[in-house]
Model the fold of this input.
Amino acid sequence: MNNLITRNLFFCSIFFVIISCSEISSRNTNLSNQKKGELYDTVSLAIVGDLMCHSQQFNQAKKDTGYDFNPAFAPVKKYLESADFTFGNLETVTAGAALNYTGYPMFNTPVQYLDALKNAGFDVLTTANNHSLDRGFVGVEKTIVELNNRGFLHTGTARSLDERNNSLILTKNNTKLGVLAYTYGTNGIKIPDGKVFCVNLIDTLQIKQDILKSKQSGADVVLIFLHWGNEYQRFPNDSQKSLENYIRKNGGLLVFGSHPHVLQPVNASNDYKTGFTIFSMGNFISAQRKQYTDCGIIVKMKLIKNLATNEVSVSKANFVPTYVSTQNGFRILPVYDAIESINNKNVNHLSYTSSIIEQTRIKEVWNETNKHMTNMNVGFTALEQ
Done:
């Protein structure tokens, strides 16, 4: 009996030690994670280019009960909604049916377009571009009302001077991001008298002041969205390079361009310390079908903040090549996913297209985009899944 009791006590002791060690290990892991959380903070971003809506798009989206643009974004939704903040350039206005829905050259889009963007995962829309005044100041006002009604964060246009001067600051845990947006012009449409605040035009002194104000408002890092450059040119011009250099010298770390409707390359140092620029993000969605205008990218980026020094840097950046399919309506296809579905004959996949012409073009887009946008010096490469 004594031997039995001794054995039972021995095994109980061993069991207690194992459980205790397990609990101590668990607590140590939690403490380690807490220490990491106290030292560093991370923020994930997804950024795309021009969100256009030509008449072909809203005509195809028209249903008996209104408009449904959701199918266009369904194949890329997983890449958009997974980020802490997802950005796009809204290159249209939503001024209402009374002012007529139109595409190029003066855009006005059904408000259900915004519903689809929200459902796809977009958080922040920039509104400073050459189509900001396509329905005048009333278009600016109505678009901002619709954006606010859906909970979008936005910058680039404003209804008042106070609204224009209110810095957009995004907060994730202990990290704050400032967001600014500007355009080269408004297609010759005159800014209304007394309302110079309604569209942010590219002005170096104003940009410098806005960056400073954003940082004074708490921003750890400032993102600048610029509508600039020459349409359909695949490389930046001298004025883009000059402005990028000016912005970096004045504290703008991240620069994302739009307007050319084609992709333009990345400029970044090997450690990202001096900044990161994509001169043009290309079209994310449009009805343009010429080579290079039918594709774009989703930039997937991770920022890390050292909470001891408050320094924010880019820890990782990659891109997802995309292609706009017109089979079965307009759809933005992640190119790698599309190629995989084609190779596997997965006809039920969201990114599948049965069009032989599109299948050929999708493979071309993969090669074109990788060749044009990859920057091995900073590890900026395509994500394959």
